[in-house]
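=== RUN LOG ===
request id: a7f3
mode: sequence -> structure
chains: 1
length: 549
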Amino acid sequence: MEVLKQVTHVFKFVIIMFLSVGLEKRIDAALFRQLIFNSPFPLIGSAIGSVLVAISLIGSNQNYLVMIWLCLVFATIAIRVWFVHRCQTQIESSGFDPQATYRYAMTIGLSGLAWGVGGFMIKDASPIGMVVTITAIQAMVMGAVLMLGAFIPAFLAFSLPAIFPMIFVLAFSGNMAELVLAIYSSIFLVLMIGIAKRFNQSQRNTWQLTFEKEDLLKSLTDAHDHLALLATSDGLTSLANRRRFDEVLEIEFARLHRSRAPLSLIMLDIDHFKSLNDTYGHVIGDQCLKKVAEVFQRYINRSPELAARYGGEEFAAILPETDYDGAIILAEKIRADVAGMNIPHRASSTASYLTVSMGVATIDCSQTKSPVDAVAIADRLLYKAKSEGRNRIASLNGIEACSERDAVISLIWKDAYACGEPTIDKEHRELFRLANILLENRIKSNVDQSQFDIALDALLTHLTKHFAHEESVLFSLGYEGASAHAERHKSLLESALKLRQQSIETGEGGLGELVEFIFSKVIVHHLLEMDREFFGIFTDSEVATSSNH
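=== RESULT ===
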């Protein structure tokens, strides 16, 4: 009886321990799937074991009861087969249901009860029948450790009702040998419960480690994807950033170079964005950037097209296999939609609302030296649109150009660019001329590299002298912004010389970036926009004349 109390205590301890653990549902689901997967083995064992027990007991006075018991065992097997199939269907259709584990344990309990009934039959059995029955029941409990140990309630639901009747019959038979067998069976049950408990914990730990590794890997993968997205997207507008733009352009340029399909590029710039920020503040400026980005993305959204924030208030689009007419239609829709938002911009000299300017270039990649040159063409078209009044599109169909010379975008001097100081205006016109020579030498493929170098050095030399002269004029007239203007000159020269050195070191690959910098940053942005800040000091013709002497 002491042994029975100990077994009961162990049973209660295991149940309480199991219910209090509360491991993750994923582990329970994995263990239950393992339980269902292993279910054919105990069912086969139960069928074979029951037949062997029945054979060993036939010939006694219990033949009728033996046959009833055998039918009972096979009935429980049939119930378990049906329920296993139902669980498999449920898992496939709706996933894991925690309640199903306990319903499954109940069917296991029916099997345990059936085997427990067989334990009562050893009372009047022959020695061989007794040995076979005891061995079969203990073997079934031992096998349940591996087959049902994934779910302790299922193991207990089978092993306790299966072995307790046999222990009871042996303990109260009045035979010392059978009492020893009862004690042995009780110790055996306790050992099996302990082993099942450790096996279950081992299984749970294994699955827990597996899921932790999977979660860690998923977290690392998600973090990597998030960082990759951050590295290739603009935080404010959610468009691709300059880095992603360059990567995609290089890939598409190489692909279209082989296929000879057209490549269209759109460069977009918000008109008078600096004055918008100064007038309305950076918060409103950021909101305008987001709204323009939404319009841009609305039309540039097909694979493998890419819409990107190129930098500041400038956006760019890559349109692979899009012809000139298609690119112009898209650009006009974007321009019209931005204007149609009627975002106030009282500081704009173009309109009373927010507008954009665009450069659209359609090129044959096999006739263009590099992706950088393709961007440079679209960028020069953008600044051409800005210099001609903004809120418009400047375009080039490079594929239909009659010759390489026709495809060159030339800077054209206009009287509106003059500041009123004759020497400075003369130097500006000379910069236009040298820039056009540089561009022509860059784009024409039959020009020797030395000719391009000569044109580049001539432009940089003239630029250095012009900056120095312009600064001396501004300082002599007491212009308040002379020092700041001189700092801009210094920064531009340093950047130009640095790019020049990089082009020497890297060869052909660095020249396109240098040419783009000279055109977009030095000539168009600085000369045509930043220099206008001091135009007012030359409005008096007498001042202009005196400064010239």
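=== NOTES ===
The domain at 239-404 is CATH 3.30.70.270 (Alpha-Beta Plaits).
The longest helix spans residues 176-232.
=== END ===
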